[in-house]
Structures are given as C-alpha cells and as structure tokens.
Fold this sequence. Notes:
eight-stranded mixed beta sheet; 721 residues; 38% helix; globular
Amino acid sequence: MAKKSDKLHIVLLSIHGLIRGENLELGRDADTGGQILYVLELAQALARQACVEKVELITRRVVDSDIDDDYAAPLENLADNLSIVRIDAGSDAYIPKEQLWDHLDVFSDNVVNYFREKGTLPNILHSHYADAGYVGANVANQLGIPLIHTGHSLGRVKRHRLLAGGLSAQEIEERYSMTRRIEAEETVLATAERVITSTKQEIREQYELYDHYQPDQMRVIPPGTNLKLFMPPVGDELTSPLYADIVKHLKEPGKPIILALSRPDRRKNIAALIDAFGQSERLQDLANLVIVAGNRDDIDELDDGAQEVFHELLVAIDRYDIYSKVSMPKHHVREQVSLFYRIAAASGGVFVNPALTEPFGLTLIEAAASGLPIVATEDGGPRDIIANCRNGFLIDPLDSGSIQTALITLLEDKKTWQECVSQCLTGVCEHYSWQAHAERYLSLIQPIVERSEVLTRVPMRRRKELYRDRAIVSDLDQNLVGDEYALQQLIDVLQQNRKSNKFAIATGRRFDSALRLMKKYNIPEPDILITSGGTEIYYAPKFSADVAWSKHIDYHWSPHKVKSILAGLPGLKPQPKSEQSRYKISYYIDPETAPIIEQINSLLHKEEQSVHLQMAFGQYLDILPIRASKGLALRYVADRWQIPLEKVFVAGGSGADEDMMRGNTLAAVVANRHHEELSQLVDIERVYFASKPFASGILESLEYYDFFNQCIDPKEKTVSA
C-alpha cells in the first residue's frame, strides 16, 4: 500500500438506509432517519477542516426500481475532498437492516478490496450502528486500521423497548436478529480504540451493560447542530402565517411565549407544565403557553398513549380555565420547527423541556441556537447543556414550584433573559456546532493515528448467558426507603452485579409519585418499574411503558361502576387524585369501621365486578383489574424477559407484596413495623424472614440465598444433599 499523506484520510461506515448528498429522504422508512443526517453532516464538517485530506462515506450500493437511481451510483462526489462510496453487498435490492446480516461478510471483503485497489489505507475507520460496527471490526482487524465507533442505538436497549411494545422474546429474535446484533456490538467494543457517545448518561445506562465495556474507551462528543437552520430571529417571525395560527385563540397574543415542543408521550411530562402555569396567576399575567405535541386530526384516532396524554392536557386546561391563554396547534411540518423557536424568541419567551428523563436534549440545543433561553429537567443532557451554555435553569420536573420560579425569573428579569440569550448563542457555537464537534473529534483521533495514545484494556469476563438471568425486586416504602446508609450499600451491590442481574421496583405508588421518592433518596433508575400496584410496567432507559400489559389487564374493567358500588361504604375514603390512576382505584380504609376485605370483594362480585383487592400497611386499599397485581406483573415480566422465577428475589414488607412472594420466587420479609401483615408466610417454603429492617434486611436476605452465585434456598440445598 502507498505511503499515507501527513493529512488525515477518514472513512465513515454507515450501511443501512438511503444516503446521498442532497434531498435526503428522512422518514421514508425506519432505516432512513436521524443517523443518516448525523453521518452526512459529520462527513461534511470533517471535510472542511484544514488537516483533513479526504473523507469517504462508505455505504451499501442499492440497485432497485422502487428507489431513486442515485443510490446505485458507485461514487458521488460532494466536494473536492468528500465523497460517498457505494459498495455492493449481496442482494442489489433495498432491504431493511435486519435482513442485512447475511450480507455483511461479503460487504467487508468488498471494502477491503476497495482499499487494496486504491492502494492506500485510511488513517481512521469510523463505524456507525451495529451493522457497520461488525464490518468495521472485520476490516480494522484485517488491515490494522484504528477503529472508532458510534452506536446510535444499542441492541440490549432496543430489546427493552420492543418487549415494552408487546413483542415476545422469540418474535424479537426472529424479526430483529437480536442475538447477532448484540454479539456484533460486543465484538466492536472489543475492537474499537474509542467509542463516541452523546452524553455520559448514555455510557452509564447503555454501554455499561456490555461485557466488553471499557471505561477508558468511552468519549463524549455531543452531535453538532445545523446553525444555518436553527438561528436567532431575523425580524419577520411575528408577522408570519405560523405566528397568526399559533395566537388566533389567545386573548392577549402580544405576550411572550412559553414554548414546549415534544411528542405526546407521558414521559415528556407536559401536563406538569400546564399545572405549573395554571396554578400561577403571575405566570399567566406574564406569558402565554404554546404546546406543540405532534400532529392530530382526531384525538380518538391516536394511539392509546397519545390519547391519554391529550386527555390529561385538556382536563388540566379546563380545570384551571385557561383556554384563552394556552395554544396547542393541531398540525405542523418538520420545516416549521425552527420557526417555532424563532417566534418564541422574538416574543421574548422561554423554551421548556419538563421531561421526566432526558438523555440528551436535542430540542434544548435547537432552542439555544435560536436565541431562546431554556428551562429544563435536571436529568441527563440538560445538565451538560446548561452548564456549557449558561442559558437558563434546571428544574425538578415533579415540582410545580420549581418550574414556576424558573419561568418567572426569566420572564420578569429582562437583564437575566438577555444574558441567557447572549450566552446561549456563544455556548452553542463553542460546544454544539458541527465546527466544534469536528475540532473535538480531530483532537480525539490524532493521538490514535500517531499511535501516541493506546487504549489499555482492563481484564473482562464474558457472562455465561447473553442476557441477564436473574432479578432483584423490591417495594419502595418500608423496604428500600428507611435506612439511607444501608440503601447506599445495596445500590453499590446492585451496581457491581448489574451485568448479570436486573433490578426492579414494584410499588403501589403512581409512576410520578414513585419517581419523586426515588429522586429524594437518590435511588437509581431500575431496569423495570412496576407502579400503581402492578397495573403499569415501565422499562429503562427512558421508562418505556409496556403497552401490551395495559391491553392485557383492561379486561372487564369498569372503574366507574366500582366507584359507584363502593360509594358511601363506611370506613372507606377515596385517596386524592394524585394517587388514582387509570387502572387503580385507591381508598383510605379504617379497619375499625369498614367491612373486611372479603366482604368488599363479595359485594363487588355480586355486582359482576371481577377485581383484585390489595391492602397495604393496614390503611391503604387498592382496587385493580382482576388480571393485575404486583405478583401477576412480576410473573409477566419474568416470562417476557425469560428469567426463571427460581432466580427472582423478592423483598416485601406489607400485605400488598404477598402474591409476589408466594410460589417459586426466592422471597424475603424485611423486619419493618408492618411485617406482621406477612406473618402467614412464616411456614411457606422459599420465604426468609430477615432479622434486619429496610435495605439491611434485603442485603441480609441476598446473602442468605447466595443470590449472586448459587442462587438457592439453603434449606433446599440441605434436603437435596
């Protein structure tokens, strides 16, 4: 091979989807999305750097009558030193990425042949996504080229989302070749010199789950933002047709705009923003609220999750009677997003992202580039963005007062608002432009090219199973919470064993209430969160809701009839709305005056209401659909994740935990003041009564079962011997 130039020759590998230099078909299908735009803009940014001789973006050549001929061209020159190179890979047809695996070895060989025919090797090979990672690892190991990798999306995390969407483990394997994908990701982690991520949270929540994860291998370089598209107001925003459409129903359209822009997803927490706005007369005096939550014609035609969100939003608007102060446009197109930001900025407004969890926060960077101060959740990416740009405030998304204070500060104090505008524009250019990204990227790869910085890998051990094969499940109240020192010890143990063990929380609390308590005690996000007494199931990261479970339990569920039957019953008092949910009716119960549980159940059955009753701590009664409970949710999750119940440890402390603890699970009753509710389990096999309370009792019980090693009840071991 010929001697390389002093300048850099960089090759980017992105195999699936349709990629060309202009008129990207973003959104055409699942494979032609954000990654395509990211890779193209990265290539263009790198090609503009003086120290870069050439950038080649290598992708798959596609010859298919159903798509444009552009994708069949072997070479597309975008600039003097930038080109897209298309290489054959088996079938000429355009096929989804899940069907590419059988063609990747051919593609790898063809890439090697391409370099050999050219007579020069690149200084760096940078693969994007698992399929390109597989090819990149093959080519790098064969030719000795340093490999950089960006995952974009990881198989272990994707599997979580697919399970939440209702697919079975077998369906996921058959449809997505998940085993091959995860093995490819392990291989690329074992090969790559560096792995580039967008945030530290991405490393912690995703890459740390892999056997070949190396802490020193990871580098955070946030993606760039198109500053030609997202820019400060130019002067005509408040006379645009879009502005007229936004404010047409507002009583005082000239006020500053508080803008929120997101999907209609419960995790985006938009209802909390309406609550904060509706509860503050001062905020209503200062501004109008504009919520852009996707497109809709008829709310009833949206999916169940979106319907529920819009129902919540409309009920909140009605509750506070703020119809003339809130605008929720029904339609918009992608090209209008940047104008939404500029309109809000021109009005003197603020952008708000109150999401419960926000791994990166692209909308925050887009808003900042548009000269719009921001208020954002104190989670993940927003922390870094506000620290870098100093353009707003972090808030507790579960605290209305926190949201109100931040917004009022920016809207009342024009000096602070203007400082945030100036700082956000400077900060975006310095930290989140493609120029800044390219400069950081080159400073990362230069020592690798020069071989002056070599990754020292720490020893690692592959797990026996591809997926985690055991789980620890605990309630929140009176279990995890109660002894902060012991809780931290337990968290450390869970962290040390997270590659082989899933951590789940099962609580009677509502989703938002559970998050609030977890936040208060710094309890990390569990892999599985079962809330509202077993009626809702969420998976990490991002708390994806299990929609299949919701459909399963919505069987003969008539909450209005249940409430009507129990109305006026002595000793029962409905809990506040904050503790009620779609599939959970909650009461305070006075055991002295209320009928016993069996009588309440009998009364409901006589009225043909098949329900499940749960009692906790002697004073809380939850009524759930017949197919829902903590125990049933636990068994559903174990089945979907293919974890044997014999390898599921359950820690309980109240009567509501009982059905989780019976059967084949390894169970423990911690010694809190309510453990007498579970005294009937004392003679049940595989139930251990700990001598210590709270997290100390959980640690004691895990040791009793030798959970991270043999994972067996010692009494059973003695019997078998």
